[in-house]
Amino acid sequence: MPLGARPPVLAISLIFTSSLFGQAANFQDTKSAAATESKQARPDGTAPRLTSFTADMIEQGKHSVNAFCGRCHGRDGRGAKGPDLTDGIYLRGPMTDQEIVDIIANGRSGTGMIGFGADYEDYYLPVVAYIRAEEAKAKGKPQGPKGDIARGEAIYKKQQCGGCHWLNRSGGRLGTDLTHLAATANFVRQKILSPDQEIDRLHQKVVLLHSNDQVTTGKRLRETEHDILIIDDQENLRSIRKSDLEGVRYSSKSIMPSYKDALSQQEIEDLTAYLVSLQQKPAQ
Ligand code: HEC
Ligand code: HEC
């Protein structure tokens, strides 16, 4: 389909993506290199490389990761709310080069991983080059939090995290679904200690000022031109007409309280180990 046939917004975002992804890279080179590599499996059973990666590509890939992936995967792809892309550990088992290209193009449905469009797959090769180079460096280094998973599970129950969070088919709706937690140990630890530092915009606290001076706080679920649907602090769903409101404010405080004073350092490590361990379970 020609670009002109797309809805204007999508067309603009694709052009934007392609020009920025393309800016630093010389993709003609990577394309011809890819064509010369065979796609057959290697004798040792590992998946084939899509191409041989040059130092230039790795450098280009690093820039793209910072520009396009950093807000979720952290600086240099070292993980934040989204998983670390550089440690060689994948949430659902090892990924081939092609699978990484595919996930960048299409995203992963039902998760926070967005797709950048299938039209620009060649632009993603330098990103794969960077990821593979970092993985090679990470091999053999110690990984993960040092806490005790079983103790962490007990703390999760005792602190009633499930009053807000959904996990193991039960829990509250004010928080996020921790079944699909993809964050690194560092991010989880930070969230437990200082939740206001990096607030998930999709789960942000809203403060609604009504015309009669009443105030309602809760989590915004949906917003249309005329209405805003929230789940209030008592977990009631409420649809409120915007015309009845003086204003809508987004709070800079997370709905989640800090556990800095409630938990010891060891307990925070245990809790972190428990939450991160949930990711190692196979999907579904
Ligand atoms: C809006 C946030 C967001 C952006 C932007 C984003 N990702 Fe992701 N990505 C995620 C999340 C969340 C996951 C975890 C998905 C899951 O739970 O399976 C993920 C998963 C992945 C995975 C699979 C990792 C694994 O362990 O299974 C790869 C590879 C990946 N992203 C690459 C990228 C690259 C490369 C970019 C930039 C071109 C990017 N992502 C941009 C949020 C994002
Ligand atoms: C009063 C409700 C509430 C309680 C209690 C609560 N949380 Fe949260 N939590 C939230 C909300 C809302 C978010 C998402 C908004 C944000 O980023 O601040 C969140 C985010 C998180 C995240 C990041 C999740 C993600 O998907 O990236 C983690 C991890 C987390 N909470 C762990 C915990 C743990 C562990 C406890 C118990 C010690 C706990 N929470 C207690 C409301 C709560």
List the keywords.
single chain; 284 residues; alpha+beta; Cytochrome Bc1 Complex, Chain D, domain 2; SH3 type barrels; 3 domains; 5-stranded antiparallel beta sheet; two-stranded antiparallel ribbon; 7 strands; 36% helix; 13% strand; globular; disordered N terminus; binds heme C
Number of helical segments? 8
| Structural category | alpha+beta
Q: Could you tell me how far the N terminus lies from the C terminus, measured between alpha carbons in angstroms?
A: 35 Å
CATH superfamily of the largest domain: Cytochrome c-like domain
- Quaternary state reads single chain
CATH class of the largest domain: Mainly Alpha
Number of strands: 7
Question: Which ligands appear in the coordinates?
Answer: heme C
Q: Specify the CATH architecture of the largest domain.
A: Orthogonal Bundle
Q: Tell me the radius of gyration.
A: 22 Å
Total separate domains: 3
CATH overall fold name of the largest domain: Cytochrome Bc1 Complex, Chain D, domain 2
